[in-house]
Amino acid sequence: MLEILSEHPCFNGIQSFYRHDSEATGLPMQFSVFHPPAEEHQLVPVLFYLAGLTCTEETFMIKAGAQRAAAQRGIMLVTCDTSPRNTGIPDADKDWDFGQGAGFYLDATQAPWSKHFRMETYVTQELHSLIFSEFNADQTRTGIFGHSMGGHGALTLALRHPDKYKSVSAFAPIAAPSRCPWGQKAFTGYLGNDQKSWLEHDATELMKKRQTPFPQGILIDQGLGDKFLKEQLLPEQFEQACAQAKQPLTLRRHDGYDHGYYFISTFIDDHLAFHERILKSD
């Protein structure tokens, strides 16, 4: 049962917020959809956006300023919460970079997280199916993008599920999580100490095993004023992996820009144009 939490007219479309009981997580999950005006009379392309650490299903829709361009381009925007909530797991909200609000878009294999933290299944199967069954969305024209932890999610889920996503981009992604503190903490907690299992959720390592998985290119924007750049994000690792895999990559480095949504809102139109070009191509 899909519960409508709120609806707001926005650029002649509708910004909606929803809740439903999730089989994947075993708990209620919330997500948001921007319905462009074109959806009233035709199937529209869909862009799934994955947010970063501490964010919710509201963050992108409130802060990114994406609805104007999405309305003009006839693209549906979908974003979900970053983890299950109210899990009953002790201290699940103790750390801002692990647990609640920090699901890392993977299915945990370690107790106590494995019962509810199944974000890969939620995003790629349950939410994916829900969008196409409930709304006027075109399953053959689907892209994914995200920011920081969500940029990691967008890259890894696109590489792990290439049949589901035709286009992929990211803002300041955690590009080599098995090599950075954020990723190592999350992978140890969710996946255990076997580092071989970590590599299956590391965009850089996944790309090394591929050969031009997205021939129309991948777009990444990275601010050079980002305080997390050197220790946590490591885009140069992904850049090298793309060169090895003969994967076209546009990695744009921007002087002065930091890690936040002022940065994202500056370049959001470029990302929607990038996805539109691919999703609307034959």
Which range best describes the helical content: under 10%, 10-25%, 25-40%, 40-55%, 55-70% or over 70%?
A: 25-40%
Main sheet makeup:
9 strands, mixed
Sequence stretches where pLDDT stays below 50 over 5 or more residues = none
For the largest sheet, list the strands in their spatial order. Answer: 1-2-3-5-4-6-7-8-9
Average of pLDDT = 98
Q: What portion of the residues fall into strands of 2 or more residues? A: 15-25%
SSE string, helix = H, strand = E?
Answer: EEEEHHEHEHEHHHEHHEH
The N- to C-terminal Cα distance equals: 35 Å
Radius of gyration from CA coordinates? 17 Å
Number of helices: 10
Structural category: alpha/beta
**Number of E-state strands:** 9
Shape: globular
Describe the structure.
The protein has ten helices and nine strands. It has a nine-stranded mixed beta sheet with strand order 1-2-3-5-4-6-7-8-9, sandwiched between helices. A hairpin with a 6-residue loop joins β2 (13-21) and β3. The protein has 282 residues and is an alpha/beta fold.
Features of this protein?
single chain; 282 residues; alpha/beta; 9-stranded mixed sheet; 9 strands; 23% strand
Layout of helices and strands:
Elements lengths: L2 E8 L2 E9 L6 E8 L8 E7 L8 H5 L3 H7 L2 E5 L38 H16 L2 E11 L1 H12 L6 E5 L9 H11 L3 H4 L4 H6 L9 E6 L5 H5 L1 H10 L4 E6 L6 H19 L3
Parallel strand pairs: 4-5, 4-6, 6-7, 7-8, 8-9
Antiparallel strand pairs: 1-2, 2-3, 3-5
